[in-house]
Design brief:
The protein is an alpha/beta fold and about 130 residues long. It has a single domain, classed as Macrophage Migration Inhibitory Factor (2-Layer Sandwich), CATH 3.30.429. A 4-stranded mixed β-sheet has the order 2-1-3-4, with helices on one face. The radius of gyration is 15 Å and the shape is elongated.
């Protein structure tokens, strides 16, 4: 059950957040070859100067930090594709310069992700982790 966390240094419209979350789910599902029902997303808004990336000299243009807790097993190429996809969605949705973004991926065993009825198995190609 990935937990995809997006922190952005500006106020955001609810409709844009709803659309963004759906695009993130579809992106993750496509790239990581899995279903969508288990994907959790957090979108947090901060003041202009509450987020910082060392190389950003104009935070007024936007800063985005992403932390993605995912199941282990995907290739570096897939993880990189996902990272760049997140950056593109952030840029397209809120015009944040890609150079103002920082993404961290943290991999976990499937059994580290829990829902009420079960924990997830390790990732397998073409899976739907909530299917019986």
């Amino acid at each position: 059950m990935p937990h995809l966390q997006f922190e952005i240094n500006r106020p955001l419209e609810d409709n844009a957040k709803i659309t963004f979350a759906e695009k993130v789910r579809q992106l993750f599902s496509t790239i990581m070859d899995t279903g969508t029902d288990h994907i959790s997303i957090s979108i947090r808004e901060f003041g202009t100067y509450n987020l910082s990336v060392g190389r950003v000299t104009e935070p007024e243009k936007g800063v985005a930090l992403v932390n993605a807790d995912i199941r282990e097993g995907r290739t570096m190429e897939k993880r990189r594709e996902l990272t760049l996809g997140f950056m593109q969605l952030l840029h397209d949705t809120w015009q944040i310069p890609k150079e103002h973004m920082y993404v961290t991926l943290t991999e976990h065993k499937g059994e580290d992700f829990h829902l009420l009825e079960r924990y997830l198995a390790s990732w397998q190609e073409g899976e739907d982790p909530l299917a019986d």
